[in-house]
Amino acid sequence: MNGWWGKTLVVDLWKKRAKELELDINFYSSFIGGRGLAIRLLWELAPMGVDPLSPHNPLIIASGPLSGLPIPSSGKLVVASKSPLTGGYGDGNIGTMASHHLKRSGYDAIAIIGASEKPIYLYIDDGKVEFLDAESIWGLNTFKAEEKLKEVHGRNLGILLIGPAGENGVRYSTVVSQKGRSGGRPGMGAVMGSKKLKAIVLRGTKEPPLYDRNALAETSKEAYNAILNSKGYRAWIAQGTMATVAWSNAAEVLPTMNFREGVWEESASIGGDLMEKLKVDRRGCPYCNMQCGNVIEDLSSFESELDYENVAMLGSNVLLGDLREVAELNRMADEMGIDTISLGNSLAFYMEASERGLVSERLEWGDFREMKALVPEIARRRGLGGFLAEGVMRMASSLGEEGRDFAVHVKGLEVSAYDCHAAPGMALAYGTSPIGAHHKDAWIISYEVSTDRFSYSREKVERVVYLQNVRGGLFESLTVCRLPWVELGLDLQYYLRMMKHATGIDWSMDDIAMVSQRIYSLIRAFWIRERGSWRRELDYPPIRWFKQPLTRGSLAGKKLDLQSYDKMLSMYYEIRGWDERGIPRKKTLSSLGLDFVAPSLEASVGLS
């Protein structure tokens, strides 16, 4: 087999032993790798209805056929499990040297089951697994723990680890690597912490099996040069995603005051132009020549790696207008292993609850000192931090009907940094994202703003599905970064060519669309199986965007229309081959080779 090892390493933390799970070429051609491999393994290994924080809930670390190879922006891994934040499928990708070393370990994925009685970490050296004591690093933040591990094992390796937030079960805790690379927004860090697993240290030296190594190197060289010579390369290197602050404010989609508004008069104080002046370094994932991690010194003179999402959510959304203060909150969140998007949402939700008099303990908009004090409290679930650690959905439920009116999440995952009062296509992208509200699967908003932003057209629905199939299907399964294509227009044909050189299989975009459809339908089936029920309202964006219009800017008075959104959602279901409830039809499952999921769905919700 070329492109894949054909093996998953299954690690049992109860028995302190590991075994190989061998998979055939049909498995890989059906699911490719990364997210596809993760959801297929999760379907088999997770007991139906398992508690996300139970030892029986598997944690999957998955690569794809292009992960960790010397091609553009390939240093990615997918971390997946049943989410303690949403109760459904959860994943995230993370840029890390661990991708390089997993690819050279002799395995395509690691599936971790069980839990240790005492804190441990895994040291996996060319596939040989050691279960090592982690008592001395348990409780340390991610930056300090990583340094300790490198002192023991050297620097030529990859490390995935959690901070105090993951150890203490914060529902939006993440897996962290390389002092600022973070992934797994729906609580993948909490799953790892529930297993008393502090870290996974990977070292691999094996040469991965490839169909045509020389052709891959030649195509990779072409792609690297295409990136360097692209029209937007110089501007990208200057600001990366931080240029989106100014764009979002101009487009009136910049989340402000818990997504109450889409424009903020102080946006320049957290924007890309200021970041450029303060920048001291730039970081990126392995094999990347368009690094997106812009580094500035925060208020405490420590380095903090910034991008648009964390700056908007910890800046405009909480009315914090000092970029160095925003950077400090961001760096502290990375140290604690807390997702910055959900953190910004949770703080903003509580600020609004405080403003409305729904909670007794006050938290004012833009109060940096109090927010700074709350970050470690959230990580350790102390005092008010314990309430904030639950995430917006659960906080809102405890406050009754009024709390739900300004709770900005989908299926329990907090919305990332785009307000959609006047962006129905992006609202649909959030509503149908397979992990809950996230932009990575279908970032349609730039297209929408530049065309007819107020329409609820079938064209937009088709574009959402197309983007999901490419971004959430192709890129999440290969597993490589989407930014060369998204930001600099790298032709998708490069990826099909590189897939051919790696695997020996000719792939077309139609083939990719079929695999993506299979992955999205299996993820939806997993959600339904784990919930035991389904209703289309779960695919609605936050109720705030329907009920409470914007009051500032040129779009004042605008809000989403529920009836029109519902029509878009029905179109989406039709294109996906799902029924009006949002459940895959029996014939859809059969056409995608997913007949094995039908009995579970038939028993719980019935199939049409």
Describe this structure in words.
The chain has 608 residues and is an alpha+beta fold. The protein folds into 3 domains: 7-203, Aldehyde ferredoxin oxidoreductase, N-terminal domain (Aldehyde Ferredoxin Oxidoreductase,  A, domain 1), CATH 3.60.9; 237-417, Aldehyde Ferredoxin Oxidoreductase Protein, subunit A, domain 2 (Orthogonal Bundle); 419-489 and 508-608, Aldehyde Ferredoxin Oxidoreductase Protein, subunit A, domain 3 (Orthogonal Bundle). Helices cover 43% and strands 13% of the residues. It has a 6-stranded mixed beta sheet with strand order 2-1-6-3-4-5. Helix 1 crosses helix 2, helix 2 runs parallel beside helix 23 (509-531) and helix 12 (323-336) packs parallel to helix 14 (368-379). The two termini are 38 Å apart. The mean pLDDT is 97. Its cofactor is [4Fe-4S] cluster; tungstopterin. GO terms for molecular function: 4 iron, 4 sulfur cluster binding; electron transfer activity; metal ion binding; oxidoreductase activity, acting on the aldehyde or oxo group of donors, iron-sulfur protein as acceptor. Keywords: 4Fe-4S, Iron, Iron-sulfur, Metal-binding, Oxidoreductase.
Could you name the key traits of this structure?
single chain; six-stranded mixed beta sheet; alpha+beta; 608 residues; Aldehyde Ferredoxin Oxidoreductase Protein, subunit A, domain 2; 3 domains; 43% helix; Aldehyde Ferredoxin Oxidoreductase Protein, subunit A, domain 3; 13% strand; four-stranded mixed beta sheet; globular; Aldehyde Ferredoxin Oxidoreductase,  A, domain 1
